[in-house]
């Protein structure tokens, strides 16, 4: 979902063309009980191409809502890729229509803080968070490090002797989750060597010895670790995960590193939603989260349940943004 600078420039041009002052669209109706009801199908935006985390989560939620008959109107998933999410966010903001909602995750912070989109989480209405996923730091099976602390001990002496790779661009998710843990371990994060490989070769680069560490998702790292090709030095979760293999993976916290990073995935609406519109969506996504159907989806994809209502989600986002701003400032990635 993260793309190279030249494509960023092009995508941002598109985003700026379709952005501008939002105009509230007062559509739908309020029934006799004071409840808002949509007057047409819901456009559920996945801000990336088909097949990624945003798209998969949105489609699984839409399927759950349909199968459980939670809503009277359908939720149709529409892909709007570009700018790491910026094109979709500009579209939602400009339309400002309660029939348009979208799914997002930490890139909503990163892209805005890096100045690559005029819109951040505070420009939309947080509706609910549904799931949590986590990151992992893995090395080749024969690497000299067996723990995160051993890795960071070497990096405290000379950060440049270790090269880390991830899919996302510098200042984005794979990079930042590693930086947050290195910072908590006392590493000079301004000297960390990070390589962005958006062509799918990150794992191969570690396996062939071109780089030392991969910062990625738990599921991607676990696949290689199960095969005996890699070892996972630590995960970003606050506590060990469930599962026969996943429960063997140590957290950073249990290794004395006071850091965690959650890859949340939540639902947002346009900026000017009414209380009635927000209540409508909160109810739907709470029912979806509590359903057996979505519990099976979470288990199938290795996602943790992390439901937050609108108020709790907004407070969580504010706290995470403050933490990320401080680190991005130190790295020089933040743009006002």
Write up what this structure looks like.
- By secondary structure, the protein is α/β, with parallel strands linked by helices.
- It folds into two domains: 5-12 and 42-132 and 263-331, Bordetella uptake gene, domain 1 (D-Maltodextrin-Binding Protein, domain 2, 3-Layer(aba) Sandwich); 133-255, Periplasmic binding protein-like II (D-Maltodextrin-Binding Protein, domain 2), CATH 3.40.190.10.
- The protein has helices at residues 5-18, 53-67, 86-95, 107-113, 148-157, 173-184, 202-207, 218-226, 275-290, 292-301, 310-331, and strands at 29-30, 36-37, 42-46, 75-79, 100-104, 125-140, 163-166, 193-196, 213-217, 230-235, 262-269, 304-308.
- The strands form two sheets. Strands 3, 4, 5, 6, 7, 8, 9, 10, 11 and 12 form a ten-stranded mixed beta sheet that branches. A two-stranded antiparallel sheet has the order 1-2.
- A hairpin with a 5-residue loop joins strand 1 and strand 2 (36-37).
- Helix 1 packs parallel to helix 3.
- The protein is globular and about 65 Å long.
- The model is unreliable at 1-21 (pLDDT under 50).
Percent helix range: 25-40%
Strand content: 15-25%
- Based on Cα principal axes, name the global outline: globular
- Specify the number of helices: 11
Terminus-to-terminus distance? 22 Å
**Fourth-tier CATH superfamily name of the largest domain:** Bordetella uptake gene, domain 1
Main structural class: alpha/beta
What is the CATH architecture annotation of the largest domain?
3-Layer(aba) Sandwich
User: What is the radius of gyration computed over CA atoms, rounded to a whole number of angstroms?
Assistant: 20 Å
* Counted beta strands: 12
CATH class of the largest domain: Alpha Beta
- How is the CATH topology of the largest domain named? D-Maltodextrin-Binding Protein, domain 2
Low-confidence stretches: 1-21
What's the mean pLDDT score? 89
Along the chain, the helix and strand elements come as HEEEHEHEHEHEHEHEHEEHHEH
The number of distinct structural domains comes to 2
Q: Describe the largest sheet.
A: 10 strands, mixed
């Amino acid at each position: 979902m993260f793309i190279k600078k030249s494509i960023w420039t092009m995508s941002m041009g598109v985003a700026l063309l379709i952005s501008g002052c939002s105009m509230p669209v007062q559509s739908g109706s309020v029934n006799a009980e004071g409840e808002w009801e949509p007057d047409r199908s819901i456009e559920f935006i996945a801000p990336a191409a088909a097949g990624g985390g945003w798209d998969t989560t949105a489609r699984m939620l839409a399927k759950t809502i349909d199968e459980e008959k939670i809503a009277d109107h359908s939720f149709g998933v529409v892909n709007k890729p570009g700018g790491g999410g910026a094109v979709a966010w500009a579209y939602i903001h400009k339309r400002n229509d309660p029939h348009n909602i979208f799914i997002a995750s930490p890139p909503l912070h990163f892209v805005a803080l890096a100045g690559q989109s005029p819109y951040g989480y505070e420009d939309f209405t947080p509706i609910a968070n549904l799931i949590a996923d986590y990151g992992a730091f893995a090395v080749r099976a024969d690497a000299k490090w067996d723990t995160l602390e051993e890795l960071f001990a070497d990096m405290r002496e000379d950060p440049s002797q270790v090269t880390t790779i991830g899919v996302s661009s510098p200042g984005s998710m794979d990079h930042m989750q590693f930086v947050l843990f290195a910072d908590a371990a006392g590493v000079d994060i301004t000297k960390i060597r990070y390589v962005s490989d958006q062509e799918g070769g990150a794992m191969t680069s570690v396996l062939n010895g071109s780089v030392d560490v991969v910062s990625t998702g738990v599921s991607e790292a676990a696949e290689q670790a199960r095969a005996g090709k890699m070892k996972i030095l630590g995960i970003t979760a606050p506590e060990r995960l469930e599962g026969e293999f996943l429960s063997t993976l140590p957290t950073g916290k249990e290794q004395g590193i006071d850091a965690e990073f959650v890859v949340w995935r939540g639902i947002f609406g346009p900026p000017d939603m009414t209380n009635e519109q927000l209540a409508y969506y909160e109810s739907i996504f709470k029912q979806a989260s509590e359903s057996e159907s979505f519990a099976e989806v979470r288990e199938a994809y290795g996602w943790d349940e992390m439901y937050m209502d609108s108020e709790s989600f907004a407070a969580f986002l504010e706290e995470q943004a403050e933490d990320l701003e401080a680190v991005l400032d130190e790295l020089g990635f933040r743009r006002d």
